[in-house]
Amino acid sequence: MEISFVLSNKEDAFILERARKHSIKAIYLDPKGKDREEYDKEVDQLLQQHDIDLVLLIGYMKLMTSWFVQKWLNKVMNIHPSLLPKYAGGMDLNVHEEVIKNKDKVTGCSLIFIDEGADTGPIILQKEVTVEQDDTADTLKEKVQKAEQEIIIDGIKLYRDNRITVEGHKVRIEEGD
Question: Beta strands 5-8 and 25-28: pairing type?
Fold first, then answer.
């Protein structure tokens, strides 16, 4: 598998600059003046033009339309900075602040296939991270992001090797060789 392009709805997103530095096509798709379905149809068109098999949402803070979700069912993975279903719908530092406020001993991340809800899709993988007494939202974010990087790679490999099956709302991972 290879990265065909990086797409953002924010013109100044750091990921676009990062992609360019690594000679990866970087696309800014302006959402202004478009409703969600129009925007999702433009995204779909780009995905088809580039013959995309798997989409990774990283830092994507919008729900996809039902139309898009159904068309790309079980082909769009999203990473979330908590052990879902805990803190579903939460974003970035807010999740880590809640973990600390609630004195959770363990947090982590989840890799899911998207559905129409906010962080409610079938869970592919999760990785736990221990919360230390001296952790802050920033130190926790750093530890969780490291775990995210690991399970994204694992999830991509499982997908590439056709080892993921979704049955209803449950993900089954086939044993490897």
Answer: parallel
